[in-house]
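Suppose a colleague, Dr. K., hands you the sequence of a protein chain of 110 amino acids and asks what its three-dimensional shape might be. Before reaching for any lab equipment, you can write down a predicted structure in token form. Begin with the sequence itself:
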Amino acid sequence: MCSSLKALICISAVALAIYTGIMFGQPYYKAYLFESDVRDMIRFELQGADKLKEQILDKAKKQKVPLKSKDLLVEGESEGFRARASWFEEVNILNKYRRKLKFSFDTDLP
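The predicted structure, expressed as tokens, is then:
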């Protein structure tokens, strides 16, 4: 009986570790993909900073990135465009542990 209890505790601990890793990994992965998409949008934008900002906010909404207009700055520069953004996402582990994660990027073309 002790060995089966130990095995159950070990399996539960491993499952909790995997679940926690997934819960923390998803926001980071989503932020990475979003920044990559924004970089691509900047490379090919020809219509201006206002249109680019609108497209970035639309992409954020589609990818469920909680980015607000006030947290996004898009500027036109001589070499192209530059976008700066920051936002927070909350990770909730089984309603026992909550953590706010801050994401930001400053993207400009070299």
